């Protein structure tokens, strides 16, 4: 493990940890595992259900998500047919299951037409038995693909949260990241969303774009707050392999840190609460409702090409790619799969006992903090003995004891994208470093 002192001397922007391990640590299973065996020992009373729509109108210059731009309708239709085959086969393997959350992401789900959106929700309700009207439901949208009819469908089917990646309200800034977005179209879409009555609106903004200043970033934040979003996410711009910006090989400066601090101070002054490095929640945001879901403990059923599924011992997905040719090839192969083939799990990561403990520790630390008693109850060991490196965070003022656990300080939250990668296991780090980007 690299010394924390060394890493703290460099950039605080190493990598965004939204799951552990990252898909770059996944490898083919030989032989493939049966779907039934993967889920055999998993609790099924509070699962997260996720549908992936791997299509967008365009690919932004910073995007490394699994998505294809501008698909023809026959490609979309073929994909949805395969999604139905996969969903039905997964239902066979799961048997009786209850879902605590539902999300539809991508890509851009609202690239689907009204019939396509209904089809996805029909799979969730009629095939898997999820109840979108009694659990939190989130759908990602874009200014270019939403309209009044699609929004009415989403609301009628139980969606209570929509998330839009605005990135910036200044056209020159989004143009610099290869996103030809018109501010007037964004504002029109936000007016439609608000008039449709979704309880939670989330807006994503990016800091670190070419030409961006503290003043221009605050301009975008003020523009966003005109629509009273219940949630705001602030994302630092990363230059990733095979993206448009990554191919430019341009060194990104650390103006990002001053932009983050300015954005954080502004949102706090406006009554928002910081939940994580990226997430800020408004005072008027509705209280969390529905069954309790904890990502450290409960499983995830990911459906669709590019979606990830989590059980306690196995994480799996389709293969991962960023390059447009490779993405389209993977989608075409997925669309040709038979119901029988969806009963096999061929690509993913087996979690050892140490990796299960590390995942719990990491996801807890970067969210609400590590609860010592909850960790001991789950793993019958002491988290500080299992991971003594946590004491280094405390020694550097990046974490503190609070109540019966360890939480990140403000300085620690600011360096979440350094702390997460620093706490990766040597095995996961080695797999990710040898991953061949394509």
Automatic annotation (TrEMBL):
Transmembrane segments: none annotated. Gene3D superfamilies: Aldolase class I (3.20.20.70). PROSITE patterns: RADICAL_SAM (PS51918). GO terms for molecular function: 4 iron, 4 sulfur cluster binding; catalytic activity; metal ion binding. CDD domains: Radical_SAM (cd01335). It comes from the Bacteria. Its cofactor is [4Fe-4S] cluster. This is Coproporphyrinogen III oxidase.
């Amino acid at each position: 493990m690299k010394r924390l002192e060394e890493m703290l001397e460099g950039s605080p922007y190493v990598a965004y940890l939204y799951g552990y391990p990252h898909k770059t640590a996944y490898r083919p299973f030989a032989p493939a595992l049966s779907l039934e065996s993967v889920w055999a020992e998993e609790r099924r009373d509070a699962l997260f259900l996720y549908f992936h729509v791997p299509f967008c109108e365009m690919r932004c210059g910073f995007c490394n998500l699994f998505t294809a731009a501008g698909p023809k309708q026959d490609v979309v239709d073929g994909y949805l047919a395969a999604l139905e085959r996969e969903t039905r086969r997964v239902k066979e393997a799961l048997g009786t299951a209850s879902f605590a959350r539902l999300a539809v992401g991508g890509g851009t789900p609202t690239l689907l037409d009204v019939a396509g959106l209904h089809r996805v929700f029909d799979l969730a309700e009629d095939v898997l038995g999820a109840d979108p009207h009694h659990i939190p439901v989130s759908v990602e949208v874009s200014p270019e693909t939403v309209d009044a009819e699609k929004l009415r469908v989403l609301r009628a089917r139980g969606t209570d949260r929509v998330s839009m990646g605005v990135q910036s309200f200044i056209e020159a800034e989004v143009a610099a990241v290869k996103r030809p977005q018109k501010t007037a179209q964004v504002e029109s879409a936000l007016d439609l969303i608000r008039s449709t009555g979704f309880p939670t609106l989330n807006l994503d903004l990016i800091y670190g774009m070419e030409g961006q200043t503290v003043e221009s970033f605050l301009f975008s934040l003020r523009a966003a707050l005109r629509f009273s979003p219940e949630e705001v996410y602030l994302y630092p711009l990363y230059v990733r392999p095979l993206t448009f910006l990554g191919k430019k090989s341009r060194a990104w400066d650390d103006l990002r840190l001053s932009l983050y601090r300015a954005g954080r101070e502004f949102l706090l002054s406006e009554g928002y609460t910081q939940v994580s490095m990226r997430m800020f929640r408004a005072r008027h945001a509705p209280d969390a409702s529905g069954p309790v879901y904890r990502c450290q403990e409960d499983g995830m059923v990911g459906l669709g090409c590019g979606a990830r599924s989590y059980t306690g011992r196995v994480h799996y997905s389709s293969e991962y790619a960023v390059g447009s040719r490779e993405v389209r090839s993977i989608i075409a192969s997925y669309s040709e799969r038979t119901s029988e083939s969806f009963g096999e799990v061929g690509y993913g990561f087996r979690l050892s006992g140490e990796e299960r403990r590390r995942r719990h520790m990491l996801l807890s630390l970067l969210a609400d903090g590590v609860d010592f008693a909850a960790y001991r109850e789950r793993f019958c060991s002491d988290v500080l003995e299992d991971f003594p490196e946590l004491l280094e965070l405390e020694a550097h003022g990046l974490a503190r004891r609070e109540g019966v656990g360890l939480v990140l300080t403000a300085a620690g939250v600011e360096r979440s994208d350094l702390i997460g990668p620093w706490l990766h296991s040597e095995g996961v780090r080695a797999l990710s470093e040898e991953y061949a980007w394509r």
